[in-house]
Design goal:
Length: about 325
């Protein structure tokens, strides 16, 4: 079993209880849309939301993006029905299941075992991947073993900042952002001179640890939500930080954040141009029997080739996906007009 290499630059959250948002989701421009049965759905709406999601999976055209479903927590009585009903009734149209609040490898194995049984019983051809939310203290403490739990089905680790903050009893209420409470002061200067404060990033450690665990096991690390969707600059800053720490995508809790994530996690034109030059120079070096060369005063070697090939493969994948999205939007507009 091998999971396909999917784009994860932007992952749009869509409440399963909101039929209007479900209808619009396939053309939102996100690489991944996850239909939410957990936190975004009130308890009294859980059953209807599940039915809405099954209908959306079966009736809507998801060819322009990947689609996953966030099930309810394994400690709730909604969970098993989420897995059984959704996969039995719409499994052929589902790319992945997102498991919330994973605390150990056993949680992953439980869902994976259920999927194996349902896929066999329903003759589902393409295996359904698993995305895992690391959003509790226990999950972070066990993140390395979680990342190793089921290599045949695991695809991504996602940092769930809000529940993680609650789990460690952090005093912040700023979902995914920074705060002046996490800062250091310079030493006292001359009498009366103001002391400077330098803000820190309270999420650096958990994101970095999760990203290392993911990359060490061939998984994709994804940063979770940024709560203030009226602050695009703050979102972009958080996304760039996550990208520097190794993440290859970020959640969008509002459609306006999708394009921001796509921009941050899409290689810039000048980077693509230089990458092509790297491959050209290394090809010349190889023909001349040289193992490394310099380009613009910087050393490039075999490691540079691997990075360049990965980047250009991603660029090609983005181009293919954008073409499919444009075609899907045109078809929808033609049908509506």
């Amino acid at each position: 079993m091998t999971m396909p290499h999917r784009l994860h630059r932007s992952e749009l959250a869509v409440p399963g209880s909101n039929e209007r948002m479900l209808e619009r989701a396939p053309d939102a421009g996100a690489d991944v849309v996850f239909l939410d049965l957990e936190d975004a759905v009130a308890p009294d709406d859980k059953v209807q939301a599940r039915l809405n999601v099954i209908t959306a999976l079966n009736d809507l055209d998801w060819s322009a993006c990947s689609v996953s479903v966030r099930i309810n927590g394994l400690d709730t009585y909604w969970c098993y029905r989420d897995i059984v009903d959704v996969v039995e009734q719409a499994g052929n149209n589902l790319d992945a299941i997102l498991i919330p609040k994973v605390s150990s490898a056993a949680d992953v194995h439980l869902v994976a075992t259920m999927l194996e049984q349902i896929e066999a019983a329903m003759d589902i051809k393409d295996p359904i991947a698993l995305y895992v939310l690391i959003e509790t203290a226990a999950g972070m403490a066990n993140v390395e073993t979680i990342a190793q739990a089921h290599p045949e089905r695991l695809e991504a680790l996602v940092f769930g900042v809000a529940d993680y903050a609650a789990s460690i009893q952090s005093t912040t209420t700023n979902i995914g952002g920074v705060t002046s409470d996490y800062s250091v002061l310079t030493d006292p200067a001359e009498e009366g001179a103001p002391r400077e404060a330098f803000w820190g990033d309270p999420w650096h450690y958990p994101i970095a640890r999760m990203a290392v665990a993911a990359r060490a096991n061939g998984l994709r690390p994804i940063d979770g939500p940024f709560g203030d969707f009226s602050d695009p600059e703050g979102y972009i800053s958080a996304a760039r930080r996550a990208a520097m720490l190794g993440c290859e995508g970020k959640w969008a809790i509002h459609p306006s954040q999708v394009e921001l994530a796509n921009q941050v996690f899409t290689p810039a034109d000048h980077v693509v141009s230089r990458t092509r030059r790297i491959l050209e120079e290394m090809e010349i070096a190889a023909s001349e029997g040289r193992g490394a060369v310099s380009l613009d005063g910087r050393l490039i070697d075999a490691a540079s080739i691997r990075m360049a090939e990965n980047l250009l493969a991603k660029v090609e994948q983005i181009g293919e996906r954008d073409a499919i999205l444009a075609e899907s939007r045109s078809a929808r507009e033609a049908a509506a007009g």
